[in-house]
Amino acid sequence: MSIRARGPRYVVQGSAQLRGSVRISGAKNAALAMMCAALLTDEDVVLTNVPEITDVESLGELLSSLGATVEHQGRGRLRINAAGVHTYEAPTELITENRASFQVLGPLLARHGFASSAPPGGDVIGQRPIDVHLSGFEAMGARVSREGERFVARAPGGPGSLRGARVFMDYPSVSGTQNVMMAAVLAREHSTVVNAATEPEVQELAHLLNAMGARIEGIGTQMLEIDGVTSLHGATARVMPDRIEAGTFAIAAAMTGGEVDIEDAPLPVMDGLLAKLRAAGAAITDGEGFLRIERTSDLRAVSFQALPYPGLATDLHAPMAALLTQANGVSIIHERVFDNRMLYVSELRKMGAEIVSTGSSAIVSGPTMLHGATVRALDVRAGAAVLLAALVAQGTTIIDEISHLDRGYEHLDEKLRALGAEIERT
Ligand code: EPU
């Protein structure tokens, strides 16, 4: 008899009501981009409030493989020094670990005049092209070619020779904007990035770059004005709290009918979610960095669209769908960012959810009594959706492939246990 090797899994006993308080960790997608920014200088970049997640680990390995020093100084403090970078070719096995790794290209190209990489990895949630990144580099004078599986980018006259340009982004891509911005800060003269992404994680990176000596204006708008400088220096920055993690706990509280205080919630960037949670019947009290979510009545169906910021984040689409299985009525969800964010649908259906998807839309009928099942975390947010469903399901749910959850949520099982959930990692 052969026993198939399995990774870690969660075993969750349902019917929990979450109660208590939870502190939100640093934002994954801000931290990852900020780590790449360290490649732009020889001096130390020190980041605090960096989440302990596997995406941070694998990006750290990638930076080390390029010759950077990456030192975990404990309690979420990370020191990166890129003085020793000696290769500009990202190893394929590390670049395919996550999506953010492709953001080493912009800094390497700007500073060293050359960068090469295979296409990035990350969740299989759509086609996830990188044309916006590459055409941005080309607009600044780089020559980009494909050599086998790798993209190779060369600045016209070697290190420091990118030219400022007016860059129009076909789509306001988050990592595309971050990559192009990191190239433009060291380009000669002025760049304008038109149709830039405005996500808080893009803003966070821009603030770090300015703290390193860059000159970026228009942060948070769709038009970035960047005056190139010849060199950047080190800086220390605290990574903002993760709006997606905060949103996931807020949804969990409303879904389980509990009462949860969310500490360090980045409230000013959570409007899209909080409006929908209120409409669904959650009672929300907020103060500076503080959010209390409780539910005193039945949940109501709400329809929503997942949109670029400041719309409701695509990363909260799947967790919200899990919540809507417990709401009275029919909810309609339109995914407007990615073309394959519906992987959670089949898993929720295994638990008894009445949910169907067609193209990039899902229709959820509720409330349904969910039951325990063996399901898979098919991507980081699909994983969050099945975990939330498991919290309210009758019986035991086994969640396989939780390495996806480990990529994006810090100490998720510990945090949920502290709120009263019965969850074990086995
Ligand atoms: N797109 C293009 N051309 C490009 C790049 C993107 O058409 O060159 C399209 C994509 O096809 C997609 C849309 O733009 O339909 C959005 O993609 P975007 O590039 O903005 O996303 P990303 O940078 O790959 C980041 C986050 C995602 C988050 C999205 C949207 C990182 C590492 N990842 O991805 O986070 O969902 O922005 O906010 O920053 C997650 O944390 O679970 C996650 C997937």
Can you give a write-up of this model?
The strands form 6 sheets. This protein has a 4-stranded mixed sheet with strand order 21-22-1-23. It folds into 2 domains: 10-25 and 241-425, Enolpyruvate transferase domain (UDP-n-acetylglucosamine1-carboxyvinyl-transferase, Chain, Alpha-beta prism), CATH 3.65.10; 28-238, UDP-n-acetylglucosamine1-carboxyvinyl-transferase, Chain. It has helices at residues 28-37, 54-66, 92-95, 105-112, 131-139, 174-184, 200-211, 243-256, 271-280, 317-324, 343-350, 380-392, 403-408, 412-418, and strands spanning 10-13, 19-23, 44-48, 69-74, 77-81, 114-117, 143-147, 150-154, 166-168, 190-194, 215-217, 223-227, 235-238, 259-263, 282-287, 290-295, 304-306, 329-335, 354-358, 361-366, 374-376, 396-400, 422-425. The protein is elongated, with a radius of gyration of 22 Å. With 426 residues, it is of the alpha+beta class. The protein is built from 14 helices and 23 strands. Bound molecules: uridine-diphosphate-2(N-acetylglucosaminyl) butyric acid. Residues 28-29, 32, 99-100, 123, 126-133, 171, 173-176, 197, 199, 314-315, 337-338, 380-381, 408 line the site of uridine-diphosphate-2(N-acetylglucosaminyl) butyric acid.
